[in-house]
Design a protein that fits this description.
Blueprint (H helix, E strand, L loop, with lengths): L6 H6 L9 H13 L5 H9 L5 H29 L9 E12 L5 E14 L5 E11 L3 H7 L1 H6 L7 E6 L3 H10 L4 E4 L1 H16 L4 H15 L3 H12 L6 H16 L6 H6 L7 H15 L8 H15 L3 H9 L37 E2 L2 E2 L4 H4 L1
Parallel strand pairs: 1-4, 4-5
Antiparallel strand pairs: 1-2, 2-3, 6-7
Helix pairs in contact: 2-4, 4-14, 4-15, 5-7, 8-9, 8-11, 9-10, 10-11, 13-14
């Protein structure tokens, strides 16, 4: 006799060798992306009466995540090839990037980079607030992260937004990300991050947890917040020359003063507040917890490097409320889809000084985006 055929299998959409309907697989993967694999079988049995193993949850979730990553990478390759018109962006958009550490198999750790994008509005209290947040996360190098984030940046209309306020911790790779996607962004050093540097200086000079350290830090924080950056830099410079300081403390004061001095244009907090811009990157720090740490840093968890990005892809679909629209494309992928290969990245454009506020004159520089379209100098075109 030949191989049996069940019309019901086709009607239910069952794949060969599987007894799970597409709806059940969807449900299992949603749960596996949210919860430790071992917790899923009990919940699924409670709500559906279907019994599966934790290993089945792991296998289906990892397979779906790999397929979702392929779809997302292909979307970026398509954007770079076709250069479609971006949608209109908001009048003011916040863009922040940051990193969070994820535990790997073997006891190592690796940095997951995350992008948060939102629309800046004025809250009921009259203060700026960032809403309509969406995210993108990947475990990769800075250059690849910048390219892979293109789909989310394009979808949110970053290139057509009136003003993009970029609040970061000042790391070099964060500035490179802005150079790629919105070189004229208003760049702001995250205010709490600046206070962390001042707090380390206060503890070194006056002693950790002392009243004197708290008093000095409060004075410097107020001065920095209210447009007196020069006073803060001057105080640090004077204290670094004070006799009787230990060498480590003196060097710490010099480093802190240099760190803030080289980012002085990004610490004009009073001017930023007057313009209606936020000065903190809390949205991306929350994204680190929401997208990355809530699933990847559970008790006893260690991840194979190859499984991190598939899980992050599923997590961002959930956080961005895009699961329903994305799932058909994930389901249609073959069991072992080939990974799309992005074209080699072109050499980055030469760095240039950019304005910290729209009203300030920009340094001469060829534009990479005009009317929302990449010019011939844009890295997409040059690739």
């Amino acid at each position: 006799m030949g191989t049996g055929f069940s019309p019901l299998d086709k009607q239910l959409g069952l794949r060969p060798g599987s007894s799970l309907t597409p709806w059940l697989v969807d449900s299992i993967v949603r749960l596996g992306a949210r919860l430790p694999f071992g917790q899923v079988p009990g919940l699924l049995a409670h709500f559906t009466g279907v019994t599966i193993s934790a290993e089945t949850v792991r296998r289906l979730t990892e397979r779906a995540g790999a397929a979702a990553e392929v779809v997302a990478t292909q979307a970026v390759a398509d954007l770079e090839r076709t250069l479609p018109d971006p949608p209109p962006g908001p009048a003011v958009q916040q863009l922040s990037v940051d990193g969070a550490m994820a535990p790997l198999v073997g006891g190592g750790w690796a940095e997951v980079k995350t992008l948060a994008i939102g629309t800046v509005t004025t809250g009921p209290d009259g203060l700026p607030t960032t809403t309509a947040l969406s995210y993108f996360s990947r475990l990769t190098d800075a250059e690849t992260f910048g390219r892979l984030a293109t789909d989310e940046v394009h979808r949110r209309g970053t290139s057509t937004a009136g003003t993009v306020v970029a609040i970061t911790d000042g790391a070099g790779w964060c500035q490179g990300f802005l150079d790629l996607h919105r070189h004229d962004a208003v760049r702001i050093l995250d205010f709490p991050h600046a206070l962390e540097h001042l707090g380390e200086a206060a503890a070194a000079v006056f002693g950790p947890g002392t009243a004197a350290a708290s008093e000095w830090l409060g004075i410097q924080a107020s001065a920095l917040r209210h447009g007196r950056e020069a006073d803060v830099l001057g105080d640090l410079a004077v204290r670094a020359t004070t006799t009787g300081l230990g060498e480590e403390t003196r060097l710490l004061l010099i480093r802190t003063q240099a760190y803030l001095a080289t980012r002085r244009a990004q610490t004009r907090y009073q001017a930023f507040a007057d313009a209606g811009y936020p000065i903190g990157s809390g949205c991306v720090e929350s994204a680190n917890k929401l997208v990355v740490e809530a699933r990847l840093k559970g008790a006893g968890m260690h991840w194979a490097r190859a499984n991190v990005n598939p899980m992050l892809t599923l997590r961002t679909l959930i956080a961005n409320d895009r699961w329903t629209e994305a799932w058909p494309g994930i389901w249609d992928q073959p069991r072992h889809p080939p990974r799309p290969i992005l074209a080699p990245a072109p050499p980055p454009p030469a760095p240039a000084i950019v304005p910290t506020l729209p009203a300030l004159p920009a340094a001469p520089r060829s534009k990479t985006i005009v009317n929302g379209k990449p010019t011939t100098d844009h890295p997409w075109r040059r690739s």
